Amino acid sequence: MATxxxxxxxxxxxxxxxxxxxxxxxxxxxxxxxxYFDNAATSQKPRPVIDRLRAYYERENSNVHRxxxxxxxxxxxxxxxxxxxxxxxxxxxxxxxxxxxxxTTEAVNLVADAYxxxxxxxxxxxxxxxMEHHSNIVPWQxxxxxxGARLRVAPVDDTGELIYEEYLALLGERTKLVALVHVxxxxxxxxxxxxxxxxxxxxxxxxxxxxxxxVPHMAVDVRALGCDxxxxxxxxxxxxxxxxxxxxKTPWLDRLPPYQGGGDMIxxxxxxxxxxxxxxxxxxxxxxxxxxxxxxxxxxDYLASIGYDAIARHEHDLLAYATERLTEIDGVRIIGTAAxxxxxxxxxxxxxxxxDTGTILDRLGxxxxxxxxxxxxxMQRFGIPGTVRASFALYNTRDEIDRxxxxxxxxxxxxG
Length: 416
Hints:
Blueprint: H1 15-19, E1 28-29, E2 32-33, E3 35-36, H2 47-60, H3 70-90, E4 98-101, H4 104-119, E5 125-129, H5 138-147, E6 150-154, H6 164-170, E7 175-181, H7 193-201, E8 207-210, H8 222-225, E9 229-233, E10 244-248, H9 250-255, E11 266-270, E12 273-276, H10 290-306, H11 308-327, E13 332-335, E14 344-349, H12 354-363, E15 366-367, E16 369-371, H13 376-382, E17 387-391, H14 398-415
Parallel strand pairs: 3-15, 5-6, 5-7, 7-8, 8-9
Antiparallel strand pairs: 1-2, 4-10, 9-10, 11-12, 13-14, 14-17, 16-17
Helix pairs in contact: 2-10, 3-10, 4-5, 11-14, 12-14
């Protein structure tokens, strides 16, 4: 079945027209129109994605790769077309380099497990940065615990930028892999990943990039970057939850051992042994998230209908406006002031606990994230318990930022 036509095909960025595509935005929370600024956690879903999921479950629902009947073939075709759509999005060599997972977290765990068994031994080192999400820390810690390897951490400066010379100093003959976030979910920092990959490759070190916060906001070209592995999630880019993507260069997928065992990842099974399917199916054991993949393809088509350049310009305007308005408020301190940032503003309001700020903002209909954002080592680096985080998406507006500013003044008055 053909994907429904996108509904936002404006040649100029018409945010009100885009907002009309997102049903969840048009509701009241505690008697106030919803302002949704928790996009770094998960984004709202546009009507074309919702309609595509409904169409799949109403008319195409079936399992993939094994059935000879019509519905199974339709589901298989749509599922594999989604894989090809993802490959085109990030300019992979082909769909064979795209593995569907449950999310960015599982994609990182897949590499940590399979690459770890293939290549990591006692005394080896894995390099990460201090701004990593827990999902790009803990899998490597577990790998180090299993193998006797060591985790090395590249520090960040007071603005939240990677201290590049210290990153370089960590790379050496013991380094078996670099695992680096593309865009920090907490600070919004955009890392110089292309340079980091080039410098690691010069020493023969493979690189994994956590792109969960990058793909929703910027065009990503994995061949231009040169990375060995790139991971991201569907639900942060307007697609369904429970689905992620692992991009890996074909030679790696050929070499890595299976991550999980089960149906569909096998070629033959007997009690004497098993032979495995070709990549990427070798890494997709069991029934996959078929609807999720099809919905992700619809989300990609939706983003393409608007264009990454237009989205980036709009979000940059929101970031600049929010930064200007927030810095005008006495007592507000922004955490993360890197020169190159995505549309994320983390801040503290005087000595008021982030949880209290977030709770009051919620009563005003404003959804922000509070806490450590699954980056506790980064909070320790800045000596704070957490922040209030406003993360923007293509459907947010300057008027909503004005409401956030009014809300912060309300918070200050209540705690003054």
